[in-house]
């Protein structure tokens, strides 16, 4: 029983402790689902840099339009890159077989990835920041959060190229990556790239649970109602007790 409790406790606090399954520690993404501009930028970045390989098969373009406050025209002009229709689900341009042949692995659907990974949006954020060159890997890239990932660093031209700095290895264990160093600067500085990674992570967080947008905006009204109701209850109580006193 105590062991089970300890495990449950550990699981509950794992994201806070920065434990990522199998990878290095996670960085806080700082995503904000009420920041509509961030979600819109994230959607644009996703369609341009990710949707070529990854589908979002549980999500429709029209839903993105409605949720993120974009008109059908804006979605069609900026977010739909192929032949897809406004009401269709978001598929990729790659046939599943090609993905296997090119990367040794098909790129998975990302509809739920921000919920499936321990750490959620923080995992995605740290993953997008964790790519480094590794000549031993088939694509030439490795990742601190997802070691051995077969995805190339598709945003390298923005972030630049990072090289690993290895820590001391003990007892003949494989050397571990202690930190990453920017070897070749990219088009963006570190702060701008963080924002890019944050926008994409926020977009995937929204996609994984679209209802969260409504829930968060509803929450404010619930709190306002409670405050209002408390006031009414207090006035009522004073009114009743006036006669008693
Ligand atoms: C060139 C194709 C390609 C592009 C473009 C691409 N990915 Fe990937 N991605 C992959 C492959 C292949 C994997 C599977 C890696 C593995 O399991 O080894 C993957 C894995 C992932 C995973 C982990 C999924 C899981 O279930 O473990 C995430 C998250 C992810 N990609 C996000 C992105 C984001 C965000 C972008 C855009 C910035 C992007 N990818 C662009 C090919 C791609």
General description of the model:
The chain is mainly alpha-helical and about 240 residues long. It folds into 2 domains: about 180 residues, Cytochrome Bc1 Complex, Chain D, domain 2; about 35 residues. Helices cover about 50% and strands about 10% of the residues. The chain has a two-stranded antiparallel ribbon with strand order 1-2. Strands 3-4 form a two-stranded antiparallel sheet. A two-stranded antiparallel ribbon has the order 5-6. It binds heme C. Heme C binds next to helix 7.
Summary of the model, kept short:
Helices cover 50% and strands 12% of the residues. With 245 residues, the protein is mainly alpha-helical. The chain has 2 domains: 25-209, Cytochrome Bc1 Complex, Chain D, domain 2 (Orthogonal Bundle), CATH 1.10.760.10; 213-245.
């Amino acid at each position: 029983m105590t062991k089970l409790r300890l495990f449950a406790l550990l699981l509950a606090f794992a994201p806070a402790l920065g434990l990522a399954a199998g990878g290095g520690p996670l960085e806080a993404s700082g995503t904000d689902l009420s920041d509509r501009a961030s979600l819109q930028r994230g959607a644009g970045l996703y369609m341009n840099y990710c949707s070529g390989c990854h589908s979002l098969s549980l999500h429709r373009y029209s839903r993105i339009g409605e949720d993120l406050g974009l008109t059908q025209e804006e979605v069609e002009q900026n977010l739909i890159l192929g032949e897809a229709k406004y009401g269709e689900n978001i598929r990729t341009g790659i046939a599943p077989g090609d993905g296997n042949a090119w990367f040794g692995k098909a790129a998975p659907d990302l509809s739920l990835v921000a919920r499936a990974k321990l750490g959620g949006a923080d995992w995605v954020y740290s993953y997008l920041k964790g790519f480094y060159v590794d000549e031993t890997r088939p694509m030439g890239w490795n990742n601190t959060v997802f070691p051995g990932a077969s995805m190339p660093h598709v945003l390298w031209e923005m972030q630049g190229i990072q090289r690993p700095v290895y820590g001391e290895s003990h007892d003949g264990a494989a050397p571990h990556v202690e930190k990453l160093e920017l070897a070749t600067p990219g088009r963006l500085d570190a702060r701008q790239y963080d924002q890019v990674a944050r926008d994409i992570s926020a977009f995937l967080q929204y996609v994984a649970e679209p209802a969260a947008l409504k829930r968060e905006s509803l929450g404010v009204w619930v709190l306002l109602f409670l405050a209002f109701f408390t006031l009414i209850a207090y006035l009522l109580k004073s009114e009743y007790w006036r006669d008693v006193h």
